[in-house]
TrEMBL record:
It is found in: Cell membrane. It is a multi-pass membrane protein. The keyword Cell membrane applies. The lineage of its organism: Bacteria, Bacillati, Actinomycetota, Actinomycetes, Micromonosporales. Keywords: Cell membrane, Membrane, Transmembrane, Transmembrane helix, Transport. Coiled coil: none annotated. GO terms for biological process: transmembrane transport. Pfam families: BPD_transp_1. The chain crosses the membrane at residues 7-29, 68-94, 106-128, 140-159, 180-205, 240-259. Belongs to the binding-protein-dependent transport system permease family. This is Putative sugar ABC transporter, permease protein. GO terms for cellular component: plasma membrane. It comes from Actinocatenispora sera. The keyword Membrane applies.
Amino acid sequence: MKRVAVYAVLVVGAFVSVFPYLMVVFTSLKTAPELNSTAPWLPALPGTLDNFVSLFDGSIANVSFVAYLWHTVLLTVVLTVGQLVFTTFAAYAFARMRFPGRQLLFWAYVATLMVPNVVTMIPLYLIMRQIGWVDTWMGLVAPYVLGSPYGIFLMRQFFQTLPADLEDAARIDGAGTMSILLRVILPLSKPILGTLTILTIVFSWHNFLWPLIISSSDSTRVVTVGIASLQGNLGADYNLMMAGSFVALVPLIVVFLLFQRSIVRSVALTGLK
């Protein structure tokens, strides 16, 4: 009976978690009349793919959904590569290199995690406006491409768990700092690199507030802002918005299916570190 009760609670929890996604699918397959005539939690029979066709055939005014998807993919790739490169260098410096004020600088930087992003949005926008990066790709990626406090903290804590004897042995063999990092440290850091990659991909793909503030044209608009733009002054096309949301969810679902083990391992690493 105890096991039955546990599984019953798990089934209810799973249903509560999955139900919003089911509503996204159901709503995306409805026409506008069906949206108002059927309950939100019931599917339309038969469903229609007209909403998806409208997203991709360019029939919606001022919406270029294909371009939004491409911009999001490009943004995700750039931010992921930048985070991996710069976060790795910074974390290794904080973990292994000795220089005056290292601990003070590290904890001062990590302390910025306590500051909500919304607090820095306006000063950051003013800086971008002063240097002419508003509505540009440089302004879109600059706040995040050079690393993040959480990523540096995560990588630094992992580097400190690696035995220092490995580096000493490499130095005896004549390896320099860069060679040690690339040939010794990084091959041992695949789990934490996978964790950082997954976290960065999810953050970059779902990022909404900063792209909304810094972008004002289709040339830099990402998919999250594109979905929000489907809501006009006279109302919201919920069926189209849900179709766009479903399309935006598909890549992350594919990432989850392909990297289930890495995602579980990343949850374990971020929980224990």
